[in-house]
Write a structure and sequence with these properties.
By secondary structure, the chain is of the alpha/beta class. The protein has eight helices and nine strands.
């Protein structure tokens, strides 16, 4: 069965990271690994947490169209490597890319076969509660994140699916259902269809 790319987006506090971590590799999932020009932090492993590369290597990847999307943050560059994603898809993996909305739409332009899933809490109030309870940001940052989430709402219509993350296990089950249904699409099973047609030709030959 052919692999595919699933992009999961949503506002900060929607639980994207938690849901992605719960997707079982035994079911064919492979989380996309980004490239970055920043130095590894203690405990980070090249090829597992990130692909750590130089700015020159990053620039070359960008010029050679080997990045599905890229951005700069605090003086460093980050991007999604096309070769890694395509290699995993060839292997039949469901490649999961957790990324913000603008980046997701960038990837969709370059990779139209990608499946876009938007994850969000059941209410705006719940989103605010989660951000506050995380205790990792001050009031100004939380306000900025809430404003950004409202700016993303009109873009939801450009996504293929909407998943409400009320309970993590339920959200994971819905993402699983989406991935399983998408893998059954004829366009993702061209070789199976070709093999079926070929077997019919062989059968006709032997019955002559």
């Amino acid at each position: 069965m052919e692999g595919m790319l699933v992009i999961i987006s949503g506002p900060s506090g929607s639980g994207k990271g938690t849901v992605v971590k719960e997707l079982d590799p035994a079911n064919g999932y492979a989380v996309s690994i980004s490239v970055t020009t920043r130095k590894p932090r203690p405990g980070e492993v090249d090829g597992k947490d990130y692909f750590f590369i130089t700015e020159e290597e990053f620039a070359n990847m960008r010029e050679e169209n080997k990045l599905l999307e890229h951005f700069a943050y605090v003086g460093n560059y980050y991007g999604t490597p096309r070769p890694y994603v395509e290699d995993q898809i060839v292997k039949g993996k469901i490649v999961v890319l957790e990324i913000e909305v603008n980046g997701a739409l960038q990837v969709k332009e370059k990779f139209p076969e990608a499946v876009l899933v938007f994850l969000m809490p059941p209410t705006f109030t719940e989103l605010e509660r989660r951000l506050v309870n995380r205790g990792t940001e001050n009031a100004v940052t939380i306000e900025d994140r809430l404003k950004q989430s409202m700016e993303e709402v009109p873009l939801i219509h450009q996504y293929d699916y909407l998943v409400i993350n009320d309970k993590v296990h339920s959200a994971v089950a819905k993402v699983d259902a989406i991935a399983n249904a998408e893998r059954l699409r004829p366009k993702r099973n061209k070789q199976t269809i070709k093999d079926f047609a070929s077997s019919q030709v062989q059968m006709d030959f032997y019955t002559l």
